[in-house]
C-alpha cells in the first residue's frame, strides 16, 4: 500500500469534496468509482500565471501548434534568439513558463528555450490529458522547432522527456528534476490521497490500459532509462513530498550514463529556482 509522504503538509492535497465524492462513488459501484478516479487523475489544475513568470511570458514568441497524433493543439513559447535551443517541459498542472529561472540563466549562457503548455494546461485547450500526450507534444515540437541540444523536464515532464528520448527525441544530454518513476507507484499514491482502498489502483491501471491500448508500466521512467545512451543529470530533493527521492535514485541506477544530484529542503517546486541547482545544470550542460 502507498505510504504517506515524509512531509504531507507541503504535498498537493486533493480537495475534501472530491474525496467525499469518490467515497460515495465507491459505495455505489466499483465501475463508477474507477471512472470517477480516472477523470480526476487525468484532469490537471489550471493555475493563473504568477507575477514571477510575467517576463518570460511577455517576452516569448507564442505559437499554437497542432499535434496530429493526439488531435490536440498546444501553445509554445520561444524565449531568446539563439539558434542553440533547449527544450523545457513542465510537470502536471504546470505551465510553459514555470522553469523561468532556469530559462533566464540559459539565455545568459547563449541559449534560447522552447517550452509549451501541455494539453489541458496553461493556455492550451482541453480539460484532460495523459503522459502519452506530453510525449507526443514533445516529438511534434522537435519537428517544428528542433533540433534541440538539451531537454530539461520537471516531474511528469521528466518522465515524458525520458520516454520521448526512448521514442526518438534526438538530444546530446538531458536533465530531469523531481521526476516520477514507476507508474503503478504513482497510481497507488493517487488512490491513497483519494482515501480509497488500494485495490482501486489496480482497477485504474486496467481501465487506462483498455482505454488507450497501452501497457502503463511501459511509461515508467526506469524502463525508458534503460534504453538511453546519452548523459542524463538526475536532480531530486531528499525532502520532496510529491515524488519520493527513491524515484530519482532508481532512475539513475537504470541509466547507462547517469549523474545523480540530491538536494535537501527544496521540496518539489522550490528546487526549480535554487541557484545551486541551476549552477549544477549549467555546469552539466557545459561539460564536454
Automatic annotation (TrEMBL):
What sequence ranges are listed for the domain AB hydrolase-1?
A: 86-164
- What single Pfam family name could you report for this chain, choosing any that match? Abhydrolase_1
- Name under which the protein is recorded: Alpha/beta hydrolase
> Could you tell me the keywords of this UniProt record?
Hydrolase
Q: Which InterPro entries match?
A: AB_hydrolase_1, AB_hydrolase_fold, Pept_S33_TAP-like_C
Q: Cross-referenced SUPFAM superfamilies, in alphabetical order?
A: alpha/beta-Hydrolases
Query: Source species, please?
Result: Flavobacterium potami
> What would be an example GO MF term here?
hydrolase activity
Instruction: Give a yes or no for keyword Hydrolase in this entry.
Output: yes
Q: Where is the Peptidase S33 tripeptidyl aminopeptidase-like C-terminal domain?
A: 225-286
